Amino acid sequence: MDGDALYSIGELARRTGLSVKTIRFYSDRGIVAPTDRTPTGYRRYGIEAVVRLDFVRTLRDLGLGLPTIRKVVDQELSLAEVAAAHAEALAVQIRTLRLRRAVLTAVAERGATPEETDLMHGLAKLSEDERRRLVDDFLDAVFGGPGADARFAGARRSMTPELPDNPEAEQVRAWIELAELSQDPDFRAGVRRTVESHAAELAEGDTGVPRRGPVAAVRDQVGPALAVGIEPASPSADPTVAALTAHYSRIVGLPDDVGLRRRLLTRLETAHDPRRQRYSELLAVINGWPGPENLAPVLDWSIQALRARIPG
Is the pTM of this model over 0.85? Predict the structure, then answer.
């Protein structure tokens, strides 16, 4: 058939792959009008109907509704404008679906109760402003609110989650868990004690030079001993423990005695909270950072070593 030929609705169906019922439906709604009718009233369509139906099918596959499609094919609406609006609507739907998937995955992984499910769903649905208030409340409790020690501004920023505008499901799940963790009063109190201990250490000593804290020293000094398999209570561990306590003695400006070792032990026990490690892991997922170093092994070694050298 040439370009001037007319097609019956059945022939049009064969050319387009659409059903006769679908073409009739589109025709009845004026989306694709017949070019002519036979004397007996049967519809006949020109070649432009094939092109139009192919375009309509594409728009339908992309999720556009029939009223919008009719305006587009009749050039009442710009296809570019419709595409942009539809793309934004799809983006909202995708974010919603990611949210639902994240919550459902977390519920399945945890075996959550109905109450926990409600809580997780509520945390996941928070707006950006609501998330910010929740995070600020936690950080204020840990570092202090207005007038807080400016020396901890960097540490505060390093503990701030920033959920992206289009988070992956894994990031949403991490946000839910981190938000729950940040509301734990015992966790808040433990982190606050660490901050207070560090503040006291900064105020002590007789140098104004920035110094590595005891946790950083543990990583650097204990790591090699742990790597070669030295037992924390063995005599072979003595030089490592001596270097660790000597460093802490310089930090706080106190003699390296039993009292200082007890104080250092308390400091490391407070830092050796698996919830702190988990917070760092979740924060890295949310912010798209590399995974944090796991300090649990060196902290555990140091705690055992100190306990073995502190009398009764």
Answer: no
